[in-house]
Amino acid sequence: MAYEPVIGLEVHVQLKTVSKMFCGCTTEFGGAPNSHTCPVCLGFPGVLPVLNKRALTEAIRAALAVGCKVSGKVKFHRKNYFYPDLPKDYQISQYDEPLSEHGCLKIKTGGAEKTIRIKRVHMEEDAGKLIHEEGGGSSFVDFNRSGMPLLEIVSEPDINSPEEAYQYLTDLKLLLRYLDVSDCDMEKGSLRCDANISIRKKGEAGLGTKAEVKNMNSFKAVKSALEFEFERQVKCLEAGERIIQETRLWDPDKGLTASMRSKEEAHDYRYFPEPDLVPFALESGLIDAERKNLPELPEARKARFVGALGLPEYDAEVLIQDKGTADYFEECVKFYNKPKTVSNWLMGDVSGYLNAKNLSVRDSKLKPPGLAGLLKEVDSGKISGKMAKDIIIEMLDTGKDAGAIISEKGLAQISDSGELEKFAEEAIAENAKTAEDFLKGKDNALMFLVGQVMKKTKGKANPAAVNKILRDKLSK
Amino acid sequence: MEDKVRYVARLARIKLTDGEVGLFSRQLDGILGYVDKLNRKLDIQGKAPPMSHPHEASNSFRADEVKPSLPPEKVLANAPQKKGDFFKVPRIIEE
């Protein structure tokens, strides 16, 4: 009997604010331990948290972008549990009235489109960070992360393969990057993902007992962990065992999930309304204003690249994967209105160069007017496409413009027919046999002669012009 | 009620003597009984939503601005144990 996995993902992203969620401490990454803390985020008695407006508006933007219905009311709850990284012994979160509910994200896997429903998007604060002493009996706590503004995005269990989970995360991250509400950097912990997975027989609608999988530090790790966990659960059922509801940790070195020692009692967080934060109504118009301010989202941008700019679907898909690249592409097109040509150069030589140097297109020395200038030189016949490939590397290295490099190096193509005719005659005279072959109908022979002329001109001849001159001369 | 008191005490990591469990159970019974009177006398089903805060407010937030954090010596001034700039706690076993 074939089984299928049923997966729901919980994604936490850190919102892009300069100060923490409920206090004025900086959100800057790094810093000496506990240097970004104050009485509020250290949970000292008697302090009052006050919500960061930017965290709220960014949360609203993200919620709107995934099609959630945003509540006009902001209400926080305390989630109570004891852990040394949580100085107040409760986390300020949202519970029965989250910021928003009922959204969705469209993903594409293997050519098919699928809608993953999003259950809720809500705000909460982050906890501190624990470092365990190597071999010792102590742990150390750094509260710099305590009180960072987080957004929790919870999907419905609509994901049915590890690949879909990977795609969902990729698309969600892209969307959040376009919204500019989070860096979504898993290495810095600004995006984290936990997965709930159960299995069922294909075709069935019910839900099995789920396991929660944690500790994945990349999208690839999420995919691998889910692949492993699916197999494990299938083996479990086939051996006639029961799946236990538990939390399992992904071990990237061993490539497996292992049960976290289950706590002696199930979690009871005793949620109750946070008395320090007055529930409040959002000023009417705030949600609509945020909705109007939403930027063009990846899906819409792709459609426009295909529809209005005539790019192939594939090119559009590649270009929108990074907002900076898509912006750069559009700027180039402003200066040089042949989108497909620009796209070829960006996806080919330019990205090859940048990837090798681990640079983003924004940091490169080649600016859109520069690239446009180079392509115009090719169009005018002054240089060949092949020469342009060398010139662009120099432009990327130095930031010089194409014209300067062409004249400095004397790279301008020889299109002057008088000069080319001289070289063509020489080539024919020196290769009489080849010329004869061509006349007998061997078309390839001409390419050899073109090559000879290119050699004589040190590659500076315009190949199309040479081709024409040779044909004219030979057919006389 | 005594079971509930013991359960909540355990969740809150509070140690209670049997005498205290009895005392708090009686006190809580009294309070809940009093509130329950209102439940029986007043029909508010669907007429008033549960209230978690006494007054209504709108837009209670602050601007996203960085304020100075506490100096390290103040951060750690009350820490029972510390190491360098860290708070030190008994080792937490997670795996």
In whole angstroms, how far apart are the ends of chain A?
Answer: 77 Å
| CATH fold field value of one domain in chain B | Histone, subunit A
DSSP strand tally of chain A: 17
- The shape of chain A is elongated
Form type of chain B: flat
The CATH class of one domain in chain B, by name, is Mainly Alpha
Strand order of the largest sheet of chain B: 3-4
Task: Quickly give the CATH architecture of one domain in chain B.
Answer: Orthogonal Bundle
The domain tally of chain A reads 3
Portion of residues in beta strands of chain A equals 15-25%
Structural class of chain B: alpha+beta
Q: What is the averaged pLDDT score of chain B?
A: 86
Largest sheet of chain A: 9 strands, mixed
The major β-sheet of chain B equals: 2 strands, antiparallel
User: Which structural class should the secondary elements of chain A be placed in?
Assistant: alpha+beta
Radius of gyration of chain B using CA atoms only: 23 Å
The tally of beta strands of chain B, per DSSP, is 4
- Low-confidence residue ranges of chain B: none
Fraction of residues in β-strands of chain B: 5-15%
Short note summarizing the structure:
The complex is a heterodimer of chains A (476) and B (95). Chain A has helices at 53-65, 162-179, 219-238, 286-292, 298-307, 313-320, 323-335, 339-357, 368-380, 385-398, 402-409, 417-430, 432-439, 444-456, 463-474, and strands at residues 3-14, 51-52, 69-70, 73-74, 77-80, 90-93, 100-109, 112-125, 129-132, 138-142, 149-155, 191-201, 211-216, 246-251, 256-259, 272-273, 280-281.
